[in-house]
Amino acid sequence: MKKFIxxxxxxxxxLFTLAIGIALSLRSNLGVSPVTSIPSVFSQISGKSVxxxxxxxxxxxxxxxxxILKKDYKLKDLLQVGFSSVFGVFTDIALYLxxxxxxxxxxxxxxxxxxxxxxxxxxxxxxxxSDIVINAPEGLCIAISKKWNVAFSKxxxxxxxxxxxxxxxxxxxxxxxxxxxxxxxxxAALSIGRITGFIMNRYSKKxxxxxx
Length: 212
Description:
Layout: H1 2-27, H2 34-46, H3 50-69, H4 79-97, H5 106-130, H6 136-148, H7 152-175, H8 183-208
Transmembrane segments: 49-69, 81-98, 110-136, 157-178
InterPro entries: YczE/YyaS-like
Organism: Tissierella pigra
């Protein structure tokens, strides 16, 4: 029971850390993170909060996992839907906490962006290593990784790039501009998967030692 409590605590911390990373990327004003780009553009279209559209996007990711894995899909992974709603709330809370954060010079924005990339990667690392319920987008990447035997870090990077392309297309179609897709989004798409993979390779065994 004690081991489960530690793992669950790490998972919740990971969820909130990920939400903070997303909020920091938004406040950098250099573009939203790749996975957030889709909820962000649909938030602008619908008028709903980013947390709400994040929950809807994550639910779609769960459906795609079921389609890909079919009989190999584990029923416990349906908990992703419930925890996606929690993450949606965390996202809105993090955005509220950092609503007053404003960086005007470009160097400061770059530093804030880099910080957000590291924080997002740490959040993903905690979520994946705690092995409670995988965050829905990462669960989709893992499903693709298992189905076609491709390294998770490569799938994650490709998925991030796909999210950017999709949100960019929708933004151009609906608003006629790039929306919140900027250089920071591209940098994040190319780096988050690699940073997460680096952290997991170096520290996953040490973290698992806390509850193994």
